[in-house]
From TrEMBL:
Pfam families from the UniProt entry: WD40 (PF00400)
Function: Involved in mitochondrial fission. Acts as an adapter protein required to form mitochondrial fission complexes. Formation of these complexes is required to promote constriction and fission of the mitochondrial compartment at a late step in mitochondrial division.
PROSITE patterns named among the record's database cross-references: WD_REPEATS_1, WD_REPEATS_2, WD_REPEATS_REGION
PANTHER family, A to Z: WD REPEAT DOMAIN 5B, WD40 REPEAT PROTEIN
Keyword terms of this UniProt record: Repeat, WD repeat
Protein name: Mitochondrial division protein 1
The family this protein is said to belong to: Belongs to the WD repeat MDV1/CAF4 family.
WD repeats: 1-41, 42-81, 82-114, 123-156, 163-202
Amino acid sequence: MTGHTGTVRSVNFLGAQAAVSASRDATLRTWDLATGASTATLAGHDKSVASLALRGDVAVSGSDDGLVRIWSLSGQSCLAACPGHTAEVRAVAIADDGSRIFSGSRDGHVRVWDPTGACIAVLQGHSSLVSHVRVHRDFLVTAGADGQIRVWSAKSLLLKYAVHATEASITSLDIFENRVLSGQSDGLVRLWDFETGAALGCVGSKSEAVWHTESSNGRSTIVVAAREDDASTLSLWQL
C-alpha cells in the first residue's frame, strides 16, 4: 500500500477491514485493507507523527511537533489540538471507556486529557523520555529512557508503584494477563508481575536494542524483534 511520503511509524487496525497509519510525512492515513487503497488523509501536524491510538471512531496522535491531536475518523477531521508538552510526543493511549487520553513525551511528563482536549493532569516521576504509555484494566503503565516502569490508577491518577527496571532505556512494552514485558536498549527482555512489580525473569541476549515484544500462542510464547550486528532479528521464547 502506497501513499505516505515518509517512513510509517505506527499502524493500528480498525477491525479486519481497515487500518490507520501515522508517518514521518506528518499525516495519518486510513486504509481499506481489501483493496489496499488509502481512503482518507488526516493532516494537521507540522512534524513527524510518532504515535497513534484508536478507540471506536476516535483516533489520537502524538507528534514531534509537541502536540496531541484528537481526530474523528468518520468525519475525517481534527476535533482538538492539545498543546502542553514542551518536546516531542512519543506515546499516546486512550482509556477503555474513552473518557481519558494519555500522552508521554521527551519532556519526561505524562499528560492526561479529556475527550475535548483539555489537560486535566500532569503526571511526574520520569526523568527523561516517556516512550510508552499503555492502559491495562483500570491502570496506566508508563515507561521510557530512564529505565523506569511506573503504574498509575487510570481513574485517581495516583501512583501504584514504580520500579527501576534497568540502567538501559526501555524500548518496548507489552502487558498481558498479570505480566509486563519490557524490552531494553541492551537487547534484554524482562518479565514483571503486574500487581506487585516483582521481577519474574529475563530472556534474550546482548544486542543493540529490542524494538518490539509481543505475547502469543495462548500467552505462553514471547516474540522479540531486535537489532543485532546491523541485522534485524526475530526470536521466540517460551515462558
